[in-house]
Amino acid sequence: MDRHRSAAGPADLPFSRPARLLVLACSATKRPDPDRIPALARYDGPLWRTLRAADPDGRMAKVAFLSAHYGFRDAATPIADYDARLTQDLAERMIAGGVTTRWPRPPSPRRPDTYGMHAGAEIAGLTRYGDEPVEDVALVGGQLYLTVMHALVRGFVEMGCVRRDARVSVLNGPIGLMRRDLRRWLCGAARARGGRP
Predict the structure, then answer these.
(1) 27, part of any domain
(2) E strands of the chain, at which residues?
(3) Is the N or the C terminus of the chain less surrounded, counting Cβ atoms within 10 Å?
(4) Which domain holds residue 38?
(5) Residue 97 covered by a domain
(6) 131: which DSSP letter?
(7) Is the residue at 6 inside a domain?
(8) Are 64 and 21 in contact (CB under 8 A)?
């Protein structure tokens, strides 16, 4: 069975998941579990809690995150607890590295560049290597994260994993408004299809 479909079948889904992509900034608040757990469960800030409440079955959109440590990843990726902040310098390095630089970076420049994963591989997996390009994108986070996200989306368009005419929504501002707008974006597809928001 396709891991992106529920037992109810594709006709019952509120929207075709691969057509929508939510990219959330990581959260300083994290669950302290000692083992690696999916990022969707690890991050525990207000926006991540809103996501889990509004879309508990993960049917409204594909979800990815942008992290100062892990870079761009599928939110299903198991990650360890960590503490890293996105700085201006790091954001510029992520943008310069584009979709082909692996994150996290090697601990030493003398080590081989085989650490982590690059954003291009992640978006390829999320879109079945461009066979199901994203048509609707929501970018959610602070201004520095959004700058990096926009640069990555441009790279994803060039790869054919995001459509050139894709709708891009930017959610930024006071946390209460961001939570409201995130819920609206997630539930918008269900309303457009006549489903329950």
Answers:
(1) yes
(2) 20-25, 37-38, 62-67, 71-74, 78-79, 102-103, 117-118, 134-140, 162-171
(3) N
(4) 16-192
(5) yes
(6) T
(7) no
(8) yes
Helix spans in 8-64 (H): 39-42, 46-54
Give, for all 197 residues of the chain, the pLDDT tens digit: 333 333 333 344 444 444 999 999 999 999 999 999 999 999 999 999 999 999 999 999 999 999 999 999 999 999 999 999 999 999 999 999 999 999 987 777 777 777 889 999 999 999 999 999 999 999 999 999 999 999 999 999 999 999 999 999 999 999 999 999 999 999 986 554 444 43
pTM of the model: 0.86
Residue 133 to residues 2, 19, 57, 81, 104: CA-CA distances in angstroms? 17, 6, 21, 31, 26
CA torsion sign, 158 to 27 to 81 to 144? positive
* Rounded-to-10 torsion of CA 128, 77, 59, 6: 80
Give which of 82, 90, 63 is closest to 151, Cα–Cα: 90
Dmax over CA atoms of the chain, in Å, equals 56
Domain-located, residue 78? yes
Distance CA 47, CA 93 (A): 26
Residue the block writes with tokens 């995150």: 65
Q: Residue 62: what are its φ and ψ, rounded to 5°? A: -70, 145
Q: Supply the Cα-derived Rg of the chain in whole angstroms.
A: 16
